[in-house]
Structures are given as C-alpha cells and as structure tokens.
Design a protein that fits this description.
mainly alpha, 14 helices, 78% helix
Length: 332
C-alpha cells in the first residue's frame, strides 16, 4: 500500500510540475498583450471597412513608430522603477530647434540635426543628474523638465511653427525605402539595438536588477548613479530622435507638438508587460504595446470617436494593463 501511495504522489508531483511549466510559459504579460492586439484588430476590422486597408496599415505603422521609439526609452526608465514625463516636450523642443537652425540660421540639415539631437538629449542628461544625485522623485523632476522644455520651445518660436524645411529633410519623415516608411525602418533599428542592450549586456542586466532591488545593486558595488544617469539620457535621446522625425514629417517645427505623448509612451510600455514597479519588461512587449495604443488611436479616429473619449479609453487601458500584470505576478 505504501509503495502504491508513494507512486501516486510522485505521479501527482510530476503532473503539477508539468502544469507549472505551462503556467510559466503562457502566463506572461506579453502573451496577454498579443491576445489583446489580435482581438482589437478583429473588432476594428469588423467595425470599420477602412481599418485593414493597405493605406491605413502603412499610416498606422508610421504613427506607431514615433511612440515605439519614445516608449523604448521609457521602458529602460520604468524598468528601474522610475518615470519620465518630459518626453513629449523634448519632442517639441528638438523639432523646433532643428527647424529653426535650418530655416532661420541657414545651417545644413545634417549639422542642425546633430546639434538639435544633442540639445534635446541634454534634458535627459539633466533629468539623470538631478534624479541620481538627489532624493527628489523622478515624477517631480521630469514634471519640471516637461515645463522647461515646452517653455523653451515656445520661447524659441514665439509660439508659431517654423516652416520651410527642404524636401530632402522631409524624406526622413515622409519617405519610403521599398514599401516601408523611413520612420518604421528607424524604429526597427532602434528597437533591435535596444533589445540587444537590454538582454545581452551587463548594463541591461543592471537596469533590471536596479528595478528589483536598488539596495542590493548598490551593495554589490554597481554604480546606481551611473545607471540612472544613462537611462534618462537614453530616454532623452529617443525623444529627440522622435522630434527630428516628426519635424521632417510635418515639414515644420511645432512648439505644441508631442502634447500628451508621455501618456502614450507610458501606456505602450505598461500595456506591453513592463512592470510599473520596475524589474521586469521586454522591448518586444513595448512594441506590441505601442501597436495596441496606435490601433486604439487609429481605430477610434476611423469611427469618429471624440478625442476626449479617447483619453478616457487610454487611461482605462493603462489601469487594465496594470491589473492584468498584477494578476499574472500573483498567479506565478
């Protein structure tokens, strides 16, 4: 009898172990994001005959590319348990500077772009310096930077767009390589590099470890200040790139561009499965999240839904994503 009972217990343990492996494989936030993306696409294709047209898909990919680039930087920040509210304002600041350098100062597009990217990234450097060297919460620091960058863009332009950019420069935002828009190619390149950095380098492992337990990272001899400095610089640089692309796409530097984009970037990151408390997340998940947010924006526009209601929907999506993420972690 004892032998028979032991065999049954052993068999039961093996079954439990098998099902635990299944749970660990499929109860992942990215899986829920993929399911959500598929269901959302099906629903909108039924609701609007224009959703799955090739023209709309290309337009959707171009729209998503900018948010995905910014959200890539946001992923690094949130992985450490931080937040960056200044990204949308950095987009506007960079775009207006580059446009002004080209149109008003007669600077070459290449030099203007390099200088504009450097100055846009400087806001990320400022965020990193303050956050890493003080105990001021990131949300407060970046809220201040959001106002500073937006004010600087408005001050530089006098509140008016700077138009008159050349066709060659506009190619960055409007052109195609093959059948794919240039911004999409830029997005793919950035996401590929970011994924390698996050998954294959010591820096990437340190970023995730910092979000899990900052004190442990500090005690292990790793410079927490250096990590925080770098991640906010990365986010500033990503936002600056998005600002350059947007200026090229619009054909002008818009001081009010990027308003509310911090919400979209945070939403894409969280919906894609990055833990809002830090420590866990993937670049591919962020890309999926960016497509979900992009599809929501695109689909609701096709259905002529009020932009105010769209804000309500995006807010609900963020709360829902955090709720699902919490449930997945508890289940594990």
């Amino acid at each position: 009898m004892d032998l028979e009972l032991t065999q049954k217990i052993s068999s039961s343990d093996k079954k439990n172990s098998f099902f635990e492996k299944i749970n660990n494989s499929y109860y992942k936030p990215e899986i829920y994001a993929v399911i959500g993306l598929i269901l959302l696409s099906i629903a909108l294709s039924i609701a609007s005959p224009y959703f799955f047209t090739s023209r709309n898909m290309i337009n959707l990919a171009r729209q998503v590319s900018l948010n995905a680039i910014i959200a890539t930087g946001m992923t690094f920040v949130i992985l450490t348990g931080g937040i960056d509210l200044s990204v949308g304002s950095i987009v506007a600041f960079t775009g207006t500077l580059i446009a002004g350098f080209i149109v008003n100062s007669g600077m070459s597009p290449v030099l203007a772009s390099i200088l504009g990217l450097a100055l846009g990234t400087s806001f990320g450097v400022f965020n990193g310096l303050v956050i890493s060297n003080t105990k001021i919460p990131p949300i407060i620091v970046t809220l201040g930077t959001m106002s500073m960058a937006r004010g600087a863009a408005l001050l530089y332009t006098g509140g008016s767009p700077i138009a008159g950019l050349s066709a060659g420069f506009k190619f960055i935002g409007r052109g195609y390589l093959g059948a794919i828009p240039v911004p999409v190619w830029i997005m793919v390149l950035i996401l590929a590099v970011a994924s390698v950095v996050l998954n294959k380098t010591k820096f990437g492992r340190h970023v995730c470890a910092l979000g899990d337990n900052e004190e442990t990272v500090r005690l292990s001899g790793i410079s927490v200040k250096a990590i925080k400095m770098k991640i906010y610089m990365i986010t500033g640089f990503m936002s600056a790139i998005a600002g350059l692309i947007l200026a090229a796409r619009l054909g002008s530097g818009q001081p009010l561009a990027g308003e509310g984009w911090e919400l979209d970037a945070i939403a894409a990151t969280v919906v894609g499965g990055t833990d809002i408390m830090g420590g866990r997340g993937t670049i591919i998940g962020t890309l999926i999240g960016a497509f979900i947010i992009g599809i929501i924006n695109n689909g609701l526009n096709l259905l002529n839904v009020s932009p105010y209601l769209q804000l309500v929907v995006k807010g609900a999506v963020i709360v829902g994503a955090v709720f699902v993420r919490s449930g997945v972690v508890k289940r594990k």
